[in-house]
Structure formats: structure tokens, C-alpha cells
Amino acid sequence: MLALGALLLSFAAWEYAKVAARDAYDKLLIGGAVQIAENVYVQGGVVALDPPAAAFSTLSAYDLVFYRVTDPRGVVVAGYDDLAKGVGGAALHRGVVLRDGTYQGQPVRIAALGKQLEDAGGGWAEIVLAQTMRAREALAWDLTTKAVALIAVMSLLGLLATALSLGLAFSPLTRLEGEIAGRRPDDLRPIQVSPPREVRALVGAIDGFMRRLEERIVMMQRFIADAAHQIRTPLAAIDAEAELLSDELDDPARMDPLRNRIADVGRLASQLLDHAMVLHRMETARLQPVELNALAKSVLAQTVPLSLEREVSITFVPAPGEVTIAGDPISLREAIANLIHNAVVHGARARLAVEVGGDQAHAVVTVGDDGPGIPDGERERLCAPFQRGEGSHGSGLGLAIAAEVARAHGGGIRFEMREGLFCVSLVLAVAPAREA
Questions:
Q1: If pLDDT is split at 50, 70 and 90, which confidence band does 352 have?
Q2: Contact at 8 Å (CB) between 332 and 287?
Q3: 3-state percent breakdown (helix, strand, coil) of the chain, nearest 5
Q4: Could you tell me which residues come within 8 angstroms of residue 110 by beta carbon, excluding any fewer than 6 positions away?
Q5: 205 CA to centre of own chain
Q6: Which letter does DSSP use for residue 118 in this model?
Q7: How far from the centroid of its chain's Cα atoms is residue 350's Cα?
Q8: What ranges in 182-199 are assigned the alpha helix state H?
Q9: Is the pLDDT of residue 436 over 50?
């Protein structure tokens, strides 16, 4: 709007400057014509002119000046014979006539008037004075330049005043923005900054929304906890009933498919709830120091069954010193447990190894087994939820949970073959971005 206003004002300044320059020089031109008319006289019955040097010197300072004086008979007694013939006509008897014209290929401004000569029988002499227009244009440009400079300065001051006014007017909103942006996702308290009167209703609506959102989150957490309990309890009861039923059958092995399916359903329900928990904690859990050597060793001890159908050599290789990162211990425990469970169930034939390592920027927990591993083309797909490998009867959530936990901790999942073992590594940033 300021630019459009400045453009319109500049155009108006140019038009005004042209009018002002034209009026100023027209007055000089009229004065010069009047002075010439005053110096026209009759001597011995002949019309003559005594040229006014002062008038000509004023008019010719920047421009060329032409004039013509014609006696009542139409004879040119002074000046240029071809200058503006037939200009004015009878209007010259009533005063000065001004008009634009062209003379010798140049635009000129012409002033013409008539003078009645009593000594020549009352006839009328015609006086024509013309001036080129360079001085007018120079004056118009000078006035316009100064006006445009003033407009530019005022526009700049207007912009600065607008910016300052907006900064002062919106500073309370900036504080509100900082208050909201600096909060953790689980901080749903009412906004503490006192809002300006104009947005008080908006802030009240945001506070009300956050209160309702907190109530819904609490309800969801309670539902997840209740669902975990309510689902696991009947599954455990069904498994117990199946075991009792198998004791009454002649061939107890006939119940193994049912018991395996019950175990799969229990594992799926548990992982679904764990997946929901991990997704929720990735944004809301407060990070705290986690020592990975102790965590990985504890998870390994709790995850590997006390008895397996096959003989498996289990190795744990801790890092030489402490490996401490800023993380969520519950999510990390779940991720490592899923990697170990996948290795035990789907991979390890005779060897299972868990190793902790890393450098200053990243910590790495590696789970390796001597199983067939995952083909290169399948690795990225299996990191998505509910994607299963060929021949697998798992839930398709183990690698997905591990990958999401690794991403939440500024890292990722890495696959490699090392010393005859297929290794899946959980790469974690020592200080994730949201903690830094």
C-alpha cells in the first residue's frame, strides 16, 4: 500500500511540477510580451520597435527566444517573419493569448497580444513572443525529484513506524508463542503468560482445549493399561485351560498348535500395546541418563527363556567403559528386547551375541545370530509396522518398534554380516536433538 501510494504521489508531483513550471514561465513570457508591446511606437507614420534587452535576457537564460512584431497593415517590422502566423486573431484585442506550438523543429510556448496604435489611425499591431521549453522541463524535473525524495523519506519513516508499531502490538503474542513452543508435549497446563485483551478469548479457548486434551490422554492411558490387563488375563486363563485339557488327551501334542496360537495372540496383544506405548513416549517421555551396558545385560537376562528347544551359545560383550546416553529407558528396554526376541525365535541356530559399543556421538547395541538373516531387499520393508518376513508367524511389530525407538533417539537401525553372524544394530545418539 505504501508503494502504491508513493507511486500515485510521485505521478501527482510530476503533474503538479509541470503545471507549476508552466505557470511560472508563462508569467515571465507574458511579462516579456507586454514589455515588447510597450516598446512598440509609431515614428513618422511607421511602426517601430525598441527591443527590451532586460526582458530578452531574462527569457533567454536557458532557452531560445523568438519574437515577431507586425504593424496594422500586416507587415513584419521586427523579428521572424514565419513565427506563429495567424495566431490569436480577434482574441488578441482582448488580452494575451497563450498556446503551444513548434518553431524550427522545437516545441515552443507562444504568447501573443495586440496593441492599438492611435498614431497609426487606431490600427492594431500584433506582438508574438515564443520561447523553447527546456527551462520549464528542467524546473519540472527539479521539483519532481525533490518531491519524490520527500515521498521516499516519508514512506521509509512510515515503514519504520509501522514495523515498530507492529512489534509493540504483537510482542504479547510473541511471548505467547514462546510460552507454547517451549513446552514439552506432555505439558498441558494453562498458559501462564497474561494475554492482551484482544486475544484473551482465544487464549481461554486454547486453555480449554488443552484441558480437554489432557483429560482424553489420561482416559487413553487408563484404557491402554486396562486393556493390557484385561487381554492378558483371559489369554493366560485360556492357556492354562489348554494345558489342563492336554493332560486329559491321549496325545497331548494335539494341543500344541492351540497353545502356540494362544502364545502368538498374547505376544501380538502385548506388542500392540507396547507399540502404542512407544509411540506415545517418543514425544512425551522425559529423557534421562541411561547406561547401556547395564540395560542391555538386564534385558538379555530377562528376554532369553530359561530353556530352549535347541542348544544356543549366548554371549554378552559390554563396552570397555560406561556408555551413557540421554534417553527413555522404558522405550530402549522394549527395543532391545524385541531385537533379542527376534534373534531367539527367528534367527539363532546355535549362537546369540549381544554387544554394546559406540563413540562420542553414537552408542550402538548390536544383536547378532547365526541364522539366515534378512535379505537386502526386505530390510527396509520389515522396519514398517505389521510387515512379516517369508514364513514368519510373528506380529510384524518387533523391528518396527526398534526402528521407531532408534529414530526417537536420533539414530536408526543398521543391518550387517559380521564374523558369520547376521547383526541388527540399534544406533542411538548420545544426546538426541530434542534433549539438546
A1: very high
A2: no
A3: 55, 20, 25
A4: 84, 87, 98, 99, 100, 101, 128, 129, 130
A5: 26
A6: G
A7: 56
A8: none
A9: no
Grid coordinates belonging to 284: 512425551
Express each pLDDT in 289-326 by its tens digit: 999 999 999 999 988 876 677 788 889 999 988 889 88
State the residue for C-alpha cell 505376544.
Answer: 267
Nearest to 113 by CA among 129, 98, 127: 127
* Cβ 276 vs Cβ 224: under 8 Å: yes
Neighbours of 347 (CB within 10 A): 20
Closest CA to 366 of 320, 416, 407: 416
**Collapsed DSSP state (helix, strand, coil) of residue 108:** strand
Answer for the pair 316, 296: CB distance below 8 angstroms, yes or no: yes
pLDDT in tens, 25-74: 899 899 988 998 888 888 877 888 888 888 888 888 778 999 999 888 88
Q: Is the pTM of this model over 0.85?
A: no
C-alpha cell at 159: 515503514
Answer for the pair 245, 255: CB distance below 8 angstroms, yes or no: yes
Q: Beta strand 106-117 with 123-132: parallel, antiparallel or unpaired?
A: antiparallel
What does the block give as the cell for 161? 513506524
User: From CA 16, how far away is CA 5, in angstroms rounded?
Assistant: 16
